[in-house]
């Protein structure tokens, strides 16, 4: 009898009388939510510290745009290898290594500028560090999707995906004020030092606590049955389930890429991420250079749209699952909130029509609430990915989606330098919200891809 079975048979996983026990899958979700929030804080840290770093090092807006984009070049390229590693070794080991390595790179950014180099030299150093950050973060979202597929029934997966996806907004709401205050009070280097400490703690905790469902000592038989009967793929990461994995040969890949729904979600995720990358790269710079706010003010002001994006993300996921429970089709349940949300997100273009800063913040808040509601791409991906290649499908979707992280920062950098204004950038982002609606309408029925094994 295994340790897990002994714990279950002796009642160690049973809550004391009178105390309602928190399901283990919700604790798993809370953990990947917080890891994702820290990941986005690492990714967005340069946008908060960017003005101070730019002033100290002396690089231009175009150079800053390329630095912002460096993350996504590597992040996109790393998706397929990351997904293949996840399908081969499972989420526990790969995610732990990923967290530890991206944290090391974040910590290394605190050493920038400590020796004398020409501006182009430091630009190159930061560019390379951001490339490495992209490589090491590349398995993270496919790992989240894999965990959601493993631990959550189909009728709860929209909420689960919405929760971990909404961590990007929570990261800004929580960490942007802190990073702004640390930068103003102690200097930008301490932002990267603090994030490094948090990341190393998370990597150790993940590796020690996380296990596949059947091997997790805290999981009760009743909860395991609920998960399995509801469609959770509870054996996805078990070491003895190698027979479940289909070889990624030409026929398998061809079957995956012939899915109309998959191509629709590719285009949708690219469009949604154009808004994401504006928010985590240029938005704080926009508030400083375009609206004249101080760094400390930016930390708190940026939290307002982020909080509404967080609320929108939860709203979209819960609404989608509620529609599904009320008998609506999977296609309707996923698409309807997404379309409504992305239409709301187009309101960001209206920021170019006014100089009233409070009104601009209000519009941004509405736009990012809508963007949160419409960000159901990961839920759709978990619905359509075949069990044998969940991480491969998630990784390819994430690769296409994060191509926006290459294009958006560079385009905005050039337009800001050429025009001295963010107006074109705001319209550029709004058009992508419309493009997401187009992608949803051409996606076709949402159903799981079946592979011949």
UniProtKB/TrEMBL annotation:
Membrane topology classification: Multi-pass membrane protein
UniProt xrefs under Gene3D superfamilies: MFS general substrate transporter like domains
CDD domains: MFS_ExuT_GudP_like
Superkingdom of origin organism: Bacteria
TM region positions: 22-41, 61-82, 94-115, 121-141, 162-182, 188-209, 265-288, 300-324, 336-353, 359-380, 392-412, 424-446
Primary residence: membrane
Cell compartment(s), UniProt: Cell membrane
InterPro entries linked: MFS, MFS_dom, MFS_Na/Anion_cotransporter, MFS_trans_sf, Sugar_P_transporter
Identification of the protein by name: Glucarate transporter GudP
Xref: Pfam families: MFS_1
Entry keyword Mitochondrion: no
Keywords, ordered alphabetically: Cell membrane, Membrane, Transmembrane, Transmembrane helix
NCBIfam families tied to this protein: 2A0114 (TIGR00893)
Ranges of residues in domain Major facilitator superfamily (MFS) profile: 28-448
């Amino acid at each position: 009898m295994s340790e897990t079975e002994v714990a279950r048979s002796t009642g160690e996983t049973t809550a004391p009388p009178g105390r309602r026990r928190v399901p283990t899958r919700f604790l798993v979700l809370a953990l990947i939510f917080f890891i994702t929030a820290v990941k986005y804080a690492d990714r967005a840290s340069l946008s908060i510290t960017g003005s101070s770093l730019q002033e100290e090092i002396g690089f231009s807006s175009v150079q800053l745009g390329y630095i912002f984009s460096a993350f996504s070049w590597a992040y996109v390229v790393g998706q397929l290898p990351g997904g293949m590693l996840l399908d081969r070794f499972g989420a526990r080991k790969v995610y732990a290594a990923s967290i530890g390595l991206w944290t090391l790179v974040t910590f290394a950014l605190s050493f920038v500028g400590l020796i004398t180099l020409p501006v182009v030299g430091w630009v190159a150093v930061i560019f390379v560090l951001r490339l490495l950050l992209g490589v090491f973060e590349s398995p993270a979202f496919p790992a989240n999707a894999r965990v959601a597929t493993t631990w959550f029934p189909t009728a709860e997966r929209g909420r689960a995906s919405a929760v971990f996806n909404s961590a990007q907004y929570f990261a800004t709401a929580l960490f942007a004020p802190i990073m702004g205050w640390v930068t103003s009070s102690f200097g930008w280097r301490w932002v990267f030092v603090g994030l490094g400490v948090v990341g190393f703690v998370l990597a150790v905790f993940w590796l020690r606590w996380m296990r596949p469902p059947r091997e997790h000592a805290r999981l009760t038989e009743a909860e395991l049955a609920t998960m399995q009967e509801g469609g959770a793929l509870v054996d996805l990461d078990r070491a003895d389930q190698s027979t479940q994995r289909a070889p990624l040969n030409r026929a398998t890949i061809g079957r995956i890429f012939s899915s109309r729904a998959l191509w629709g979600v590719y285009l949708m995720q690219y469009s949604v991420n154009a808004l994401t990358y504006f928010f985590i790269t240029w938005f704080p710079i926009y508030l400083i250079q375009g609206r004249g706010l101080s760094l400390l003010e930016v930390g708190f002001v940026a939290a307002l749209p982020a909080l509404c994006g967080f609320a929108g993300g939860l709203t979209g996921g819960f609404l989608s699952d509620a529609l599904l429970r009320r008998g609506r089709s999977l296609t309707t349940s996923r698409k309807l909130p997404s379309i409504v949300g992305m239409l709301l997100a187009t309101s960001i273009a209206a920021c170019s029509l006014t100089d009233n800063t409070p009104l601009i913040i209000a519009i941004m808040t509405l736009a990012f609430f809508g963007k949160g509601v419409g960000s159901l791409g990961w839920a759709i991906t978990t619905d359509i990915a075949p069990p044998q290649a969940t991480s491969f499908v998630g990784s390819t979707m994430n690769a296409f989606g994060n191509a926006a992280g290459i294009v958006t920062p560079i385009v905005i950098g050039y337009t800001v330098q050429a025009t001295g204004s963010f107006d074109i950038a705001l319209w550029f982002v709004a058009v992508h919200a419309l493009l997401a609606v187009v992608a949803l309408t051409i996606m076709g029925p949402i159903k799981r891809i079946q592979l011949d094994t």
